């Protein structure tokens, strides 16, 4: 049995669950609305699905969630998610998790889009970060939403539609020009690995001599721990990428020194810093009037395969992406069986043409 009562102008309900009294605000001053919400609670009590809401302090939860992210996400991914979450909390200094409403999140994202010009993708990332905070609270702190229709209140925040991908890639003439520019600087084998194997920037920089099998023509992109520093691919899945004949030529004649820890060491013999590599490539290309980078090289690999008619599923496997991402990036240039797919009605047309020819001959 649920009992209605008022605190000031707001209606509350008192229920007993497992012999304990629970109090819950119905967040309305209208008696009719309060009666309706009270009836919903009584129904859930009868069905055994009612859970009293818990007031979870936000400071302790967020600090705990930050540690959770740091131990389960890649370092850069965790840092980005924590940064987005901190931006939201600084703009909305609430004290309890139940005070973080879908309206609050939606208003914050709208302001960022209108005034800061963030992209739809970034807007969706902010929504996802807050959504995951609630998922963590639901799983580990038995958080119960005030709206029985949505276990996670952030599910009601609408996502932005992402625009069509505007990716850049190099054509064969531009690839030749890029190699001509980087060849004197000793970066041609590394750039070739990006272009002809589609590796991400850090994936190539973490390659060790044992990861490159020239005999079987395979590159192993896999997690590893070197000098107490751990690394793993972005998707947390190891994969194998075949080495093309062109890439084999670059790698076979530019193998690392026998005692080298890394397949593509920096000029100082250490592992390249991703930032330093990008800065060096940008400086080299700028002198030649070029502005391509590692992401453009990776997209070149996917684009060229798609133009050859390689299935998007296979491209996704080579690149360590989901088929959906590859479809979004490369479907516009994918040519596999396109002409055969649009052919239909040929037999009837041919038969009708044959019948017309016979009629003419008879006449």
Structural topology:
Elements: E1 3-7, E2 10-17, E3 20-25, H1 31-47, H2 58-72, H3 75-91, H4 102-116, H5 120-141, H6 172-182, H7 188-197, H8 201-205, E4 212-213, E5 218-221, E6 224-226, E7 229-231, E8 239-242, H9 245-252, H10 274-287, H11 294-307, H12 312-319, H13 323-330, H14 338-341, H15 346-362
Antiparallel strand pairs: 1-2, 2-3, 4-5, 5-8, 6-7
Report on the architecture of this protein.
- The chain has 15 helices and eight strands.
- The chain has 363 residues and is mainly alpha-helical.
- It has a three-stranded antiparallel beta sheet, covered by helices on one side. Strands 4-5-8 form a three-stranded antiparallel beta sheet.
- A hairpin with a 2-residue loop joins strand 1 and strand 2 (10-17).
- The longest helix has 22 residues, at 120-141.
- It is elongated.
- The model has no long low-confidence stretch (mean pLDDT 87).
């Amino acid at each position: 049995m649920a009992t209605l009562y008022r605190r000031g102008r707001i209606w509350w309900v008192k229920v007993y669950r497992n012999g304990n009294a629970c109090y819950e605000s119905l967040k309305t001053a209208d008696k009719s609305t309060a009666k309706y919400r009270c009836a919903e609670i009584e129904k859930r009590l009868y069905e055994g699905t009612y859970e009293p809401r818990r007031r979870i302090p936000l400071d302790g939860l967020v600090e705990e969630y930050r540690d959770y992210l740091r131990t389960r996400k890649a370092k850069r991914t965790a840092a980005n998610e924590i940064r987005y979450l901190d931006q939201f909390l600084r703009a909305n200094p609430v004290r309890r998790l139940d005070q973080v409403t879908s309206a609050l999140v939606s208003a914050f994202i709208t302001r960022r889009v209108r005034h800061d010009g963030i992209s739809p993708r970034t807007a969706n990332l902010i929504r996802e970060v807050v959504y995951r905070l609630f998922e963590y609270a639901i799983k580990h702190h038995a958080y119960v939403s005030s709206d029985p229709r949505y276990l996670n209140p952030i599910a009601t925040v609408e996502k932005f539609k992402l625009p069509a991908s505007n990716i850049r890639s190099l054509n064969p003439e531009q690839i030749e020009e890029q190699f001509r520019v980087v060849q004197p600087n000793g970066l041609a084998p590394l750039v070739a690995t990006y272009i002809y194997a589609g590796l991400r920037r850090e994936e190539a920089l973490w390659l060790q001599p044992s990861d490159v099998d020239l005999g079987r023509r395979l590159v192993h992109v896999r997690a590893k721990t070197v000098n107490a520093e751990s690394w793993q691919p972005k998707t947390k899945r190891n994969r194998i990428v075949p080495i093309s004949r062109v890439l084999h030529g670059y790698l076979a004649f530019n193998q690392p020194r026998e005692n080298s820890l890394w397949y593509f060491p920096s000029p100082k013999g250490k592992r390249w810093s991703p930032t330093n590599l990008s800065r060096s490539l940008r400086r080299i290309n700028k002198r030649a009037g070029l502005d391509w980078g590692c992401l453009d090289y990776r997209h070149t690999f996917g684009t060229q395969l798609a133009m050859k008619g390689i299935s998007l599923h296979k491209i996704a496997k080579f690149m360590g992406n989901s088929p959906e991402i590859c479809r979004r990036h490369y479907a516009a240039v994918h040519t596999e069986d396109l002409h055969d797919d649009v052919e239909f009605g040929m037999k009837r047309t041919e038969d009708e043409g044959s019948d017309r020819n016979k009629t003419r001959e008879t006449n």
